[in-house]
Design goal:
4-stranded mixed beta sheet; about 15% strand; about 100 residues; mainly beta
Length: about 100
């Protein structure tokens, strides 16, 4: 595709989740801190309490292939004009126990 693909065009991952990388960057609620994981809890880190930029993950159809990993974290300024962010999306989630 030369643009975001329709949801579910590719096989899901081992958890049954579609499109975790390579379609659009996924906007995360976490604030970005380049050094956060060096001092974060090992299990279920929630990100810093505050910050300037948010985390985006997973790469997009427009990204270099080296960015196409779910574990990659990049920063994105939330005040940036969103119309220019043609390759960033979001995912609605819910805790698994609900």
């Amino acid at each position: 595709y030369s643009h975001p693909s329709p949801v579910g065009c590719f096989s899901p991952n081992g958890y049954g989740i579609y499109d975790m990388m390579g379609n659009v960057w996924e906007w995360c609620s976490d604030w970005y801190d380049a050094n956060y994981y060096s001092r974060s809890p090992k299990n279920n880190p929630k990100g810093p309490e505050s910050g300037r930029d948010h985390v985006i993950r997973g790469g997009s159809w427009f990204a270099d292939k080296d960015c196409l990993r779910v574990s990659n974290r990049f920063n994105y300024d939330p005040s940036y004009v969103i119309q220019s962010a043609f390759n960033i999306g979001f995912r609605c989630v819910q805790d698994a126990d609900k």
